[in-house]
Amino acid sequence: MEAKGNGPNEERLRPELDGPTNPMVTPLLTDLYQFTMAYAYWKAGKHLERAVFDLFFRKNPFGGEYTVFAGLEECIRFIANFKFTEEEISFLRSSLPSTCEDGFYDYLRGIDCSDVEVYAASEGSVVFPKVVQLLETPFVNLINYASLVATNAARHRFVAGKSKALLEFGLRRAQGPDGGISASKYCYIGGFDATSNVAAGRLFGIPMRGTHSHAFVSSFMSPDEIVEKSLRSCDGSSTCEDFVSLVQTWLSKIQWTHSLRGIFGETNQSELAAFTSYALAFPTNFLALVDTYDVMRSGVPNYCAVALALSDLGYKAVGIRLDSGDLAYLSCEARKFFFEIEKEFRVPGFGKMAITASNDLNEETLDALNKQGHEVDAFGIGTYLVTCYAQAALGCVFKLVEINNQPRMKLSEDVSKVSIPCKKRCYRLYGREGYPLVDIMTGENEPPPKVSIIAVAYLQVAERILCRHPFNESKRAYVVPQRVEELLKCYWPGCSGVIPNLECIT
Amino acid sequence: MEAKGNGPNEERLRPELDGPTNPMVTPLLTDLYQFTMAYAYWKAGKHLERAVFDLFFRKNPFGGEYTVFAGLEECIRFIANFKFTEEEISFLRSSLPSTCEDGFYDYLRGIDCSDVEVYAASEGSVVFPKVVQLLETPFVNLINYASLVATNAARHRFVAGKSKALLEFGLRRAQGPDGGISASKYCYIGGFDATSNVAAGRLFGIPMRGTHSHAFVSSFMSPDEIVEKSLRSCDGSSTCEDFVSLVQTWLSKIQWTHSLRGIFGETNQSELAAFTSYALAFPTNFLALVDTYDVMRSGVPNYCAVALALSDLGYKAVGIRLDSGDLAYLSCEARKFFFEIEKEFRVPGFGKMAITASNDLNEETLDALNKQGHEVDAFGIGTYLVTCYAQAALGCVFKLVEINNQPRMKLSEDVSKVSIPCKKRCYRLYGREGYPLVDIMTGENEPPPKVSIIAVAYLQVAERILCRHPFNESKRAYVVPQRVEELLKCYWPGCSGVIPNLECIT
Question: Where is this region: Disordered (chains A, B) (predicted)?
């Protein structure tokens, strides 16, 4: 059931309920018809009735078998801060027909979400179609993309395997600034290790990663232009006055190494200058992008020369990034080169230098790399991850299911679009091996499914529970649960007196 | 060349440069490696050099032939407000290695964008691969999605035709809150008429549209529950004490109309109650969603009864919305019904009642509706429009092309990924009929293409200009321009003394 190799990450985030993460998330972030309906309800005196809404989706995204539920904290934050400002009320007054009565605006002025109750599955948990339940509306916006991108991240983690580092590099291709920030947050919840996005790092405390671009490499001409050439050793005991020459010396040594002969001749001097400058700036964190000119004939040898020079001064270089070409082949060739250096110059650990790969990666390319065999340690994934290219939207809907304790349902000629009436409880039934078997919904006041053991002869046998598919009469199964978990917990108690589950929101 | 039926809408927006639209758009909204590189440049003393970057894309989106350029105002707003706060500098200090020198943070404290110049095509204009030029970096995030969704909107406008109203209904399915707000803004620039998104309406002054949902309809039981039944006539001269009965009377009349006999029997009373309540709340703006139960057997007759009752009091109902089923067929049937009512009860204009259609519409479904023949006046488009489902990202890139007046280029084994060096000028050449023929790039200091007329015998002939494809030698053409337009205007002059083009940014 643990869909993501690295498990849910939400406990590593640091939310605070005081104010929305995104200041644009105000009560106006909604469709106009929510206000026209609110007015009509108010006019008809229906605003005091008690209504229950279900928020759910009908189909798992990406043709897959599960969805990672996310966006809950943003929803709770939204209702915790739900209050109209005078400026917002003026805007609404100017937007609605002039026939709307003043009393409505007084009503809006007075409302907050203290009468609302929210029950939901926990953020970061795996959920299935039709069973997520929530109250209140712009939630759909906050849940849809969050759950979609968290699910996408979990799927990438599943393909990449637990041992690889997954880095989210999507900011520049995301759907707007907040698309980028949300992507970083929910990819982390879905099992990624770090992001390149500094704003997300600051807002959520997500680890950040990043080195340099091709432009950095091509902005240099040759090592001659490096003015400040000195570098103190890692332990501070000595200073190398000409690090640039030290790098050149190492490059010559590599060039004349018998086992590496023929792989490369002259390397690109602009690239060498860029790597040397970068190492002078970040001696403790030297990671270089090696594909600006030619990976094996320039990038990797240049990198090794700088890394060996750093090693002389006690620093350990981090690794390389590949951003083009045949990533499987190049990573294997680079790995061989690193091991050759380790052997030749007796630098322990040099062979295990980290190799990061990027360049339009997605689930399919990760799978193809696995099949080809590769030596990549970390994947930087952008466009396909954050825009959810394979399926750009999750079809979350929000349906009225009960009003004043009376059931309500939406009918449709398409049976899959019929809503299931009444307030519900949801349970996950676990089998003998500890894996979940099935999720079931019951009416609010029905007894919960029980794990009851009955003695049959000398055996202790757990009782069977009959589970039916909501729409397909032929789909039914007896399940013998060893454990029952209630899925929907109270995250916002309103005035109900129910004790909220704050574990993931404070 | 006017790709969108309704032309660019940007002049209808009301931007102010004072502060970003989205408060998350701060100097931290960038990749970590921008800061590591900035530090390395600063360490190497290269931060004082003058660099030129091109921002461009390699391929038009959606398999199409053009892109609508958008996001420029957000970029200008970003640089106009570019300044690090002390809190941001502290965060950076804690995020970068402790070896980074203090002087760098002092340098960050001091910088703004007064040394930057930005040249660009105008927002909302049609552009082609490789020719958009800009400076500075998180621009890519701001331009990518903006241009993508504006292009998507323009394509929907092209298919729908000029005479139809296009309404953006995407907020709930957009990629996060700002995904929704940006979508509303750039769909409007791309040729949409209105949005359902209230926050976007307030921020940008975009017209808003919206009525009610299926939940509103199913929240009512029967007309008996309507307590406040009186409605003043439109001119204020009289009051109908029981509007509910007036609606019931009209419903009976329609039911006994010979020409409508057999279409429907009993209509749904919950729906009738909802429509009546909505009309009492919005007598001047009555528009009803008619597909909660059955469009032709309940929704349309109920709608007509309420609309006719409103008509008795001098109000003109607006129309219906269809959100499921065969939209082409149902719109034609509803239209026939309306004309029958107009004829039978002599209500002028009733036949032309507006019909709005929604439900997972996209370019293909609009095209299919056109082919089938329909009576829809307005389309509400959501998911496919705002998430750019057909292609969720535009591949904008940002490449260094010149430094200290020296050309720079990125090489690649893939020739289409080679960048074109040097600062450029771009021109659009127009032919005899006033249509653009081709866009060309020249070096910054090359003479602009001229419209020169030479007399040949008794004919006046314009001079030919040889245009070459940047990468494909076999693609070349002589063009005889009648008019030349310079595409890249200065939108941010920095200290260059160039007079900025403020037409779309103030």
Answer: 1-20
CB A139 within 8 A of CB A72: no
**A199:B281 CB<8 A:** no
Query: Which of A28, A176, A413 is the closest to B198 by Cβ?
Result: A28
Domains recognised in chain B with CATH numbers: 10-208+391-492 (3.20.140.10), 214-359 (3.20.20)
3-state class (DSSP) for residue A412 = coil
Pairing of strands B67-68, B287-289: unpaired
Residue B9 pLDDT > 70: no
Long-range pairs for B23-26 at CB < 8 Å and ≥24 separation?
B23/A23, B23/A24, B24/A22, B24/A23, B24/A177, B24/A178, B24/A181, B24/A199, B24/B178, B25/A177, B25/B74, B25/B77, B25/B78, B25/B138, B25/B142, B26/A199, B26/B85, B26/B88
Chain B residues within 8 A of A171 when measuring between CB atoms: 29-31, 138, 141
Residues of B in contact with A213 (CB under 8 A): 33, 37
What are the chain B neighbours of A22 within 8 Å (beta carbons)?
24, 176-178
Residue among B417, B415, B413, B37 at smallest CA distance from A297: B413
β partners of residue A270 = none
B24 contacts in A (CB within 8 Å)? 22-23, 177-178, 181, 199
pLDDT tens-digit map of A152-181: 999 999 999 999 999 999 888 888 777 888
ipTM above 0.85, yes or no: no
Burial of A258 (C-beta count, 10 Å sphere; 0-12/13-18/19+): exposed
Report d(CA B377, CA B356) in Å as an integer: 6
Q: Which of A35, A6, A38 is nearest to A94 (CA)?
A: A35
Give the mutation candidate from A34, A145, A178 for the B interface (greatest B CB count, under 10 A).
A178
B35, B212, B409 member nearest A37 (Cβ): B212
Residue A373 pLDDT > 80:
yes
Which pLDDT value is given to residue B369?
Answer: 96
Q: Measure B126 CA to nearest chain A CA, in Å.
A: 20
Neighboring chain A residues of B173 at a CB cutoff of 8 Å: 140-141, 144, 393-396
Rounded to an integer, the average pLDDT of A331-356 is 96
Q: Give buried/exposed letters for A430-440 (b at 16+ CB in 10 A, else e).
A: beeeeeebebb
A501, pLDDT greater than 90: no
Per the CB < 8 Å rule, is B99 touching A40? no
DSSP element (H, E) containing B42: helix B32-43
Share of chain A above pLDDT 70, in %: 88
- Tell if the CB–CB gap between B31 and A171 is shorter than 8 Å: yes
**In the sheet where B424-430 sits, what is the strand order?**
B436-443, B424-430, B483-486
Query: For residue B474, what are the contacts with CB-CB under 8 A and spacing of at least 6?
Result: none
What's the token pair of residue B317?
A: 């109902």
Residue B356 backbone dihedrals phi, psi, to 5 degrees: -105, 140
In a mutational test of the B interface, the residue from A32, A81, A277, A298 whose CB has the highest number of chain B CBs within 10 Å is A32
- Chain A CB contacts of B393 below 8 Å: 173, 383, 387, 389
As a whole number of angstroms, the distance between CA A388 and CA A63 comes to 13
Question: How confident is the model over B412-434, as pLDDT tens digits?
Answer: 666 677 778 888 888 888 888 88
Stretch B178-182: mean pLDDT, rounded? 83
CB pairs under 8 A between A and B: 357
Q: Which of B25, B28, B31, B356 is the mutation pick for testing A, counting most A CBs within 10 A? A: B31
Query: What pLDDT is stored for residue B461 in this prediction?
Result: 63
**For B17-35, how does the pLDDT look when each residue is reduced to its tens digit (9 = 90+)?**
665 566 777 777 777 888 8
Q: What does the block give as tokens for B344? A: 């039978």
